[in-house]
Amino acid sequence: QVQLVESGGGSVQAGGSLRLSCAASGSSFGSNDFNVMGWYRQTPGEERELVAIFTDGDSTYYLNSVKGRFTISRGNGNTMVFLQMNSLRSEDTGVYYCYTYLGGVQYWGQGTQVTVSS
Question: What is the pLDDT of residues 54-68, one digit of tens each?
């Protein structure tokens, strides 16, 4: 089994910054297995949307509305993924979920709340 543990959410005023962290673990997997890792977010009544992700190796994808403001990065031998969020807007408010895909299975963290007040 894979476990994803997020941290770093919170409340901030518009224009502020937050950094999310996600640590992946799983006794059957090594650091090289976590090639696909990233972040989704969800607001009440809406579908979960992809925010940023490492798709394969160092290739990345960003949601258009966060390009230039958010940066995804890795750490700890690719078992951690971070999301630096700058110039936050009220529309960035939501629950942010860490995500990885291994062996045909999707894994999700428990989610961390990000609230941006205008």
Answer: 997 789 999 999 999
Q: What is the pLDDT of residues 24-42, one digit of tens each?
A: 988 576 666 788 999 999 9
β-partners of residue 49 are 41
Q: How many whole angstroms separate alpha carbon 79 and alpha carbon 31?
A: 5
90 DSSP 8-state letter? G
The neighbour count for residue 44, using CB atoms within 10 Å, is 6
Number of residues assigned to the chain: 118
Q: Are 116 and 89 in contact (CB under 8 A)?
A: yes
> What CA–CA distance (Å, rounded) separates 43 from 41?
7
